[in-house]
Every structure is written in C-alpha cells, then in structure tokens.
Amino acid sequence: MFKQRMDSALSSAMNSLTRYPQTMVRFTVLASGSRGNATVVTGGRTRILVDCGLSCRELFRRMKLADEELETLDAILISHEHSDHVGGVAVTARKLKIPVYFTEGTHRAWMRWLQPRRQMTYAQWLEQIRRQAAERQAEADNPAEEGEPDESDLVLDSSAEAAGPAEVADPAPAKDPSWLPAVEYFAAGVAFEIGDIQISPFTTPHDAADPVGFVFASEGVRMGFVTDLGYISPNVKAQLQDLDLLLLESNHDLEMLRDGPYPWAVKQRVMSRVGHLSNEAAAGFLEDDYDGQAAYVILAHLSESNNLPELARVTAERALNGRANLIANRLLLAAQNEPLSSLYF
Question: Which 8-state DSSP code applies to residue 340?
Fold first, then answer.
C-alpha cells in the first residue's frame, strides 16, 4: 500500500514537471552592450538563444548563473552580423550541434567577416591567372586513365581548386571558421516558427547588411526585441504594440557622446539614422508612440562610455509619466557584465 502511494506521488510529481515547461514563457538577458549580446527566450518546450556575442565559455558561464540549461537550447537566432552579436556563434553552434537562423544577407556578411578576401595588385592577379592556366594545360596534357571523372573531381571555381575537392565537399570545422551544423534562412516581414515560438522579424535602420528586430509569441505572450537602430522607423513603431514585454535600445546620452572619447567619425556614425538609439529617442517613443501595455520595459545596449544607467532610467521614467508600477511598465535595465534576472509569464 505504501509503495502504491509512493508510486502515485512520484507519478503526479513527474506529470507536474512535464506540464510546467510546456506552459512556461521565460525571458533572460544574459548580456547587453557593445562587448557582447545574448538573450534566451523560452516558450513551451522551445528555447532560443537570440544573438551570440559572448565567447562560448562566457556564454555557458552566464547561462549557469541565470539557471539556464545550455543543453536544452534548440537554436540560435541572429539579428545582424556585427561582432558583438555573432562573436561566439560558430563555436557555440558547433559545441551544441544546433542550427543557426540568419537572414541570407546577414549570413553572407558574417561569412565575409570571418573570411576576408586578400587584396592583390594587378601584377599578382595576372600571375595567378597565368599559373592557373598553366595548371589546367598540364592537366589536359596528362589526362587521367579513367574516361569519366566522378563528382569529387569537378572543380567549381579557382578558389575551390586551390582548396582541393575534399574541402569543397565537406569543409571541416577546424579549417573553415564559418562551418555550422545547420543554417536556416528567414526574411524580414515573413513570420516563421521555431518549435513552440512564433517569430516575426522586421527590418531595422542600422549600418549592417540586413538587420532585424523580433516579436516573439508563445502561449499567448508577446515579447518585442529591438536594439541597434538609428531611429524608430514607422515599421518598427507598428511592430512594438500590444506587447507583454518590450526590450528597447537606450544606447547613449547625447551630451556624453558628444563630449566623450570616441573619434568624431565614430560619434557621427553612432548618432546617424543607421547608428544607435539615444536615451532621448527611446524616451520619445515611450512617450508618444508606445501603447503602455507591456508588463516589463527593458532598456538595453547601454554604452559603457557614453551613458549612465541612472541617466537612461530617469529619462525613460519621465517618458512613461507615472505609468510604471508592479503590474505594468516595470522598468528594468539590462547590463553588460551580468545577467538580468529571468522574467516569467
């Protein structure tokens, strides 16, 4: 009888444990700033890492601190190709054997960043062409004994010829820094799903190949995610409505940036319409265009050189105009050096 009661209790506990993850929505910012960005979004049984700008080792350390199980990540989702968003993506994806989702433009830009092309003079280029022609002539003068080449002998281009057919067919991670277990493409404006999470990507104004923000939806909860944008364009405003959580860039204080240590060219880039969102611009959206529906508003991507957390907070609080309380518009700041406590729905 005692054994039956124990078995029944254990079965009930196990059922409870299996039900809980299926209905849980969780949002954990692991790092946010110019030295690395990473966030874990959980919906139902699916867990996605949004951006991977930390080293693999540091990412795993942050996940452990935040009580996030790295083994259960299902995919990595990339917003754009700048190093503070993709610095650790290749090693992490290979370590966990999970797919990485990019727009096609972002994937191509990331691959070019990892494998920059060597510059050469006209004379060097001409010598390379002559050498390749001589190699092809030598092959024609000494044909293989077999009549028909198999597929492994086909050369797609001159760079593949130099690398050899084995590397073209199956690039090894150690020799190809851009090798990933799997790559999936998505497009801005086209919603898609990863497991139990629906994702709506939208274009953002930033100086990258094809930058995007996201709205995540799962279990009836909607979470907006947008950083790295020079201004809040009409399409971004339209996306950031009817949310339960809003993560919004509040990168710099304009006076601190103008008086700060950056070279003038960098300051111009940050302040441009494809740069980063200032405290004042974020506050302008919160005051004039935000519908005030989110339970949490997270200020993210704060500059360590050109901002202060309290400046960002006070500017946003004034914009919210007293709407922040324990059940709506609770204002939080994401940090560079430590995870933000997980938020549950």
Answer: P
